[in-house]
Design goal:
The chain contains 11 helices and 12 strands. By secondary structure, the chain is an alpha/beta fold.
Length: 303
């Protein structure tokens, strides 16, 4: 049924590529975009092509986190040389947190976008995020709507169409979403998913970025807790959209059982550090046993 619903909805989308407006291009100039890459050349190529198309004025920093595949390294070389993007190369994979930190050290723009390599950006996403930051100086972290996030940022129709849409359809859907009269357009959320994690660069530097003891999974949740303690808001910008294919890079290198163990250890670390109990009634994807014996589920988009 989901596939049929996705097909019917997708037929209503424009078949012409959306062209970014002058305002969107100018907004992209305020962004330093850090892409942590660990192989997965097919989705990485799609991500980099979308940045080449729709982030023409951004500062793009590619972090090759120990990729082993020749195709991946060639993609990084080709896109960076063609667009003047910065590149950081790690001989061995250090994980998402360390890769993000390495890229962020080269950033110069007001806002950081820590972007997964299995995403497709859209023309209007930068403008909506920039407007959120500039409308309220208490907003420290922001994230767009998407197709896979593990929290409320995931839109129902987008997750159903996640694997079917091409880039033209993704951008057409994003344009529809941007034009919709969403109220409110900015919604406070306890944490913002790490697939496209926007943060004021000054705040990232003040908080020293991701906790190095949380190398990947759940690093977004832990950082959002520190952002809140610093009296900043973490918000979902509903009229911005970045497509997330999900589970296409770091996660593919580990078996599920090993991921379970990692998640359990990270939850315990965050629980002890922040005196935190995870939510029981949330639509996540990893089962974890709580201190009281109840089971709940949790996901993070940065693995």
């Amino acid at each position: 049924m989901d596939r049929m619903e996705a097909w019917v909805f997708s037929r209503s989308l424009s078949q012409s590529m959306v062209q970014p407006s002058v305002e969107c291009r100018e907004a992209s100039a305020s962004m330093s975009i850090v892409v942590a890459i660990h192989d997965a050349p097919l989705v990485t190529m799609r991500c980099l092509a979308s940045l080449e198309r729709d982030a023409t004025k951004s500062e793009v920093i590619l972090v090759d986190d120990g990729s082993r595949m020749v195709e991946t390294r060639q993609l990084i070389d080709e896109f960076s040389s063609r667009n003047g993007w910065k590149v950081v190369r790690n001989r061995e994979p250090g994980g998402h947190s360390a890769a993000s930190a390495a890229g962020a050290r080269l950033a110069t723009r007001p806002y950081l976008c820590l972007l997964n390599s299995d995403t497709v950006v859209t023309p209007g996403c930068w403008r909506a995020i920039q407007q959120a930051f500039e409308t309220d100086l208490s907003i420290g972290v922001a994230g767009p709507s998407t197709s896979s996030s593990g929290n409320e940022q995931t839109l129902d129709i987008a997750i159903k169409c996640r694997s079917y849409w091409d880039d033209v359809q993704i951008c057409a859907f994003a344009e529809q979403l941007d034009a919709a009269a969403l109220g409110p357009a900015i919604v406070d959320s306890p944490w913002i998913s790490g697939f496209a994690f926007f943060i004021r660069r000054s705040l990232w530097e003040r908080l020293d970025g991701f906790d190095p003891k949380v190398p990947g999974y759940l690093n977004d949740i832990e950082l959002c807790m520190r952002v809140a303690k610093a009296d900043y808001r973490t918000v979902w910008v509903r009229n911005a959209y970045i497509h997330h294919l999900g589970n296409q890079s770091y996660r593919k290198t580990l078996p599920d059982r090993e991921i379970e163990g990692i998640m359990q250890a990270r939850v315990q670390y965050i629980r002890n550090k922040h005196n935190w109990e995870p939510p029981v009634n949330a639509a996540y994807t990893r089962v974890v046993r709580g201190r009281d014996g109840r089971t709940w589920t949790l996901s993070s988009a940065t693995g």
